[in-house]
Amino acid sequence: MRITDARTLVCSPGRNFVTLLIETDRGLRGYGDATLNGRELAVASYLDDHVLPLLIGRDATEIEDIWHSLYKGAYWRRGPVTMTAIGAVDVALWDLKGKLLDTPVYNLLGGRARRGVTVYGHANGSTIDGAIAAARGYIDMGYRAVRLQSGLPGLEQPYGVGRGDLYYEPAAPDHPIEETFEPGPYLRGVPQLFERARAELGWEVELLHDAHHRLTPREAAQLGKALEPYQLFWLEDPVPAEAQESLRLVRHHTVTPIAIGEVFNTIQDAHQLIGEQLLDYIRTTVAHAGGLTHLQRIAHLAELYHVRTACHGPTDLSPVNLGAALHFQTAVHNFGLQEYMRHPEEAHEVFRVGYWLEEGMLHVSDSPGLGVEVDEERAADFPYQRAYLPVARRWDGTVHSW
Ligand code: CS2
Ligand code: MG
Question: What's this model's pTM, rounded to 2 decimal places?
Answer without folding.
Answer: 0.97
